Amino acid sequence: KNEVEQSPQNLTAQEGEFITINCSYSVGISALHWLQQHPGGGIVSLFMLSSGKKKHGRLIATINIQEKHSSLHITASHPRDSAVYICAVRRGGSGSRLTFGEGTQLTVNP
Amino acid sequence: DTGVSQNPRHKITKRGQNVTFRCDPISEHNRLYWYRQTLGQGPEFLTYFQNEAQLEKSRLLSDRFSAERPKGSFSTLEIQRTEQGDSAMYLCASSFLTGREETQYFGPGTRLLVL
């Protein structure tokens, strides 16, 4: 079993829909990251969380440390949100390496 | 452009050849990471440097792989005697650790195809 599991693997939505991507992890962490990867490979960091909730524009990320679970929400989705969204954790007390989930491919249709 | 840059962006090589990739981090970033990503998978950690010191290496980094960061600025990743299984995207990221906060900034990656 992977240390970081994401669901769903693939998600197709209509423009304007509210989207949720989930991430569960099985190890102690010091931080959790949500990343966005566009075709061609470039990765952009969206959020870094160690507790609670963060919001940036139409994106909201939450984390529940006790449940070892995080969610990424996109409100009023748009075709330009189409990308792979990756959850990654930095394990507590073991340096700075990130352990990544397999990613969620999101496609938003107009 | 002051982001992380990687060269080359694409590399096609024959099995058994050696290849070398370069990563130029964001200026003043003291940490530099190498990851490998195969199609449909998330990235996997390979190794990281703090300044010029290589602090951690993954078991994925076989003895055919070597990474250096000689002056604490740019880094190179060399793969010797390439195998078809080495075909992947090789990603570099850099960061500046301040207290407990650390955001890694990723380069565009080098896509390697071993024939």
What is the makeup of the main sheet of chain B?
A: 7 strands, mixed
For the largest beta-sheet of chain A, the strand count, sense and barrel status come to:
6 strands, mixed
Element order, helices and strands of chain B? EEEEEEEEEEE
Count of DSSP E strands of chain B?
Answer: 11
Strand content of chain A: over 45%
Globally, the shape of chain B reads globular
What number is the mean pLDDT of chain A?
92
Structural class of chain B: mainly beta
Write down the Rg of chain B: 14 Å
Q: Please, could you describe this protein's structure?
A:
The complex is a heterodimer of chains A (110) and B (115). Chain A has 110 residues and is mostly beta strands. Chain A has no helices and 11 strands. In chain A, the strands form 2 sheets. In chain A, strands 2, 4, 5, 9, 10 and 11 form a 6-stranded mixed beta sheet that branches. A 5-stranded antiparallel beta sheet of chain A has the order 1-3-8-7-6, with no helix packed on it. In chain A, strand 4 and strand 5 form a beta hairpin. Chain A starts with a strand and ends with a strand. With 115 residues, chain B is mainly beta. Chain B is built from no helices and 11 strands. In chain B, the strands form 2 sheets. In chain B, strands 2, 4, 5, 6, 9, 10 and 11 form a 7-stranded mixed beta sheet that branches. Chain B has a 4-stranded antiparallel beta sheet with strand order 1-3-8-7, with no helix packed on it. Chain B is globular. The N and C termini of chain B lie far apart (33 Å). The chains are: A mainly beta (110), B mainly beta (115). At the A-B interface, strand 4, strand 5, strand 9 and strand 10 of A face strand 4, strand 5, strand 9 and strand 10 of B.
Short description:
The complex is a heterodimer of chains A (110) and B (115). Chain A is mainly beta and 110 residues long.
